[in-house]
Amino acid sequence: MNFNDFWIEYTLSQGGYVEKSKGSKSQEGIVYERLFDVIIEQKLQPGARLTEISLADIFSVSRTVVRRALLRLSYEGVVDIKPNIGAIVTTTEPEDVPQYFEARRIVEGALIRKVAGKLTTFQEETLNAMVREENRYFMGGNRARGLRKSIDFHFYIADIANNKPLAEMGKKMIARTSLIVAQYNLSGSGGCACVDHSALVDVMVNGPGDIAESMMHEHLQHIEDNLYFGKQNIETDLYRILEVDRS
């Protein structure tokens, strides 16, 4: 078994954010994870409506199952459930964007400081493999998978910091700011750069913590500085977007 295959099996066994086999999950879990994926991969844009009837049809489940999945997504901060409107992919007003990035810089700065200089060989190899995969997807034109690898890179840093409450806050901020990037990033990039991630791995290997924290702050500031606060078209065809994910 090569390292990438080992990494996939390892992450599956942890029951975290990486999808497990269908047989091990409830219907609600399948709907939740598929929707989380297409939202995080920016296939579903902020502001897109998530209608219970359509989702129940797409996933061949009851509306009750869909409703529970949407409630879980609302807890994660990636879906808003509004009276008389229903569920929509979370949007952020331009004036609120700096607050979310400030919060993410504080939390992720603390997470990477805890990790810097303490990586195991396995953790170092895992992070480098993720950066290579991210670069391969983007270079091959698979933007959605590249985006997911970019986000998983940051999720993994949160996971290995050995502070569950801090990791949970970090993941929520990562997910929320990823939606902000989807809403306001006109360049079509994922917001993160593979070269930045490579540099972050280097500083996590060698330390010190204050340099790692500073580099994370600069990395996230660079993402925020490249946002474009203009109106963009919203993809609303749930059947088309989720078609690939029904297999």
Written description of the protein model:
With 247 residues, the chain is mainly alpha-helical. The protein folds into 2 domains: 18-92 and 232-246, Orthogonal Bundle (Arc Repressor Mutant, subunit A), CATH 1.10.10.10; 94-225, Four Helix Bundle (Hemerythrin (Met), subunit A), CATH 1.20.120.530. It contains 11 helices and 3 strands; from the N terminus they run H-H-E-H-H-E-E-H-H-H-H-H-H-H. It has a 3-stranded antiparallel beta sheet with strand order 1-3-2. Mean pLDDT is 84; it is low at 1-24.
Identify the notable features of this structure and list them briefly.
mainly alpha; Arc Repressor Mutant, subunit A; Four Helix Bundle (Hemerythrin (Met), subunit A); 3 strands; disordered N terminus
Within CATH, the superfamily of the largest domain carries the name: GntR ligand-binding domain-like
Strand content: under 5%
**Rough shape?**
globular
- Rg is 18 Å
| Low-pLDDT regions | 1-24
Remind me, CATH topology of the largest domain? Four Helix Bundle (Hemerythrin (Met), subunit A)
Q: What series of H and E elements makes up the topology? A: HHEHHEEHHHHHHH
> What's the number of domains?
2
Mean pLDDT over all positions: 84
